[in-house]
Amino acid sequence: MTSTRLGVSAKRSLFLVCAGGLATVAMACSGGGAPSQATQAPAAAGAQAPQAATTPRLKVAMITHQAPGDTFWDIVRKGAIAAADKDNIELIYSNDPEAAKQSTLVQNAIDSKVNGIAITLSKPDALAGAVQNATNAKIPVVAFNSGLDAWQQTGAMMYFGQDENLAGQTAGQRLTADGLKHTLCVVQEQGHVALEARCAGVKQGLSGGQTENLYVTGTNMPSVKSTIAAKLQSDSSIDSVITLGAPFALTAVQSVKDASSKAKVYTFDTNAELVNAVKSGDVQWSIDQQPYLQGYLAVDSLWLYLNNGDTIGGGKTVLTGPSFITKDNIEAIAQYASKGTR
Hints:
By secondary structure, the protein is of the alpha/beta class. The chain has two domains: 2-162 and 290-321, Response regulator (Rossmann fold, 3-Layer(aba) Sandwich), CATH 3.40.50.2300; 164-288, Rossmann fold (3-Layer(aba) Sandwich), CATH 3.40.50. 39% of the residues lie in helices and 18% in strands. Helix 3 (124-136) links the parallel strand 4 and strand 5. The protein starts with a strand and ends in a 5-residue tail after the last helix. Mean pLDDT is 87; it is low at 4-47.
C-alpha cells in the first residue's frame, strides 16, 4: 500500500465539451498483484502549463488498484496531475490492488479531511462500504476506469471510463471481420470486473468462433510469458491472442515466438513501447480507452462540483472509449505516446 503526495500542480456513447474547468473532449476515445511503489509522474513533455485557478486550495485523493509494472497508470496520473495543476489542487495519489487495502486508503483519505475522492472500483462490492463512509462524511466521490455497472449503487456521483463489455464486443467483431476463429483472452487478475467484462464482450462479438480465457498472475511477467506459450503449444488451433493491457501484449509477442505459433496478437490499452509493436505488426491493433483523459476528468470534475455545483453526464456514464489504434493511425498517436499521455 503506497501513498504519494503530489504538489500544486451516456451510457454507451456520451462525449461532451464543458466550459470552465473541463477541457474539450474531442476524440472518442488494467492489473493485479502486490502493491506498487508510486512515483510522481512528470508533466507532459512540451505541454504549456495552464494558469492555475485562483479558487481556494483543495485537497483531492486519487485511489486506484494499480499493480507493479503496469504503465497504464502512469498515463492516468499524468492526466490527474495536469488537472490538479490547473485547478489549484493538492493531489494525493495512493494505490493497492487488494480491495481491502483500497478501502483502508479511502478511510485514510477521509481521516485526512480531503475535499474529494476519485476511486477505481475494480471490486465494487468490497469497496461499497468505503465509498459510503466517504459520502457520509460529506466528501464527494467520483469513480473512474473500473466499476461501470456498479458506481451508482456505491454512491459515487459520476463515472468516467470505457464500457468494457462494449469494447470487448467491438474487439470480437473486428476479430470476426479479420477471419479469426479461436481467440485466447489473457486475464491478468481473476475477478477484476472490468477485465472479465472485456473477455465476455470478446466472446459475444466473435461470431462463429471460440473464445477461452487464460488466467495468469499479472505481477509475474516471466510466468505470464511461459503460461501463454504453454497454452499455444498445447493447442495449435488458437489463431489469436488478445491481452488486456499493453505490457501483456508485448509479453504475448514473445510467447508466440517461443511457441512457434502462428497466432496474431491484439490488445486493449497502449503505451509508448506498444507503438513500435503496432508499427512493426507484432501487435495488430489496440483498443484505447484514453487513460490520460480518465485521470484528468476524475480530478477536474471534483473541482467543478466543489466550486460550482456542476455534475457531468446527467447521471450517466461518461465514456472515454473505445477507439482502435492501428497501423493506419499509429503515427498520429505516436506523438502523444512519446510524451507519455497516450
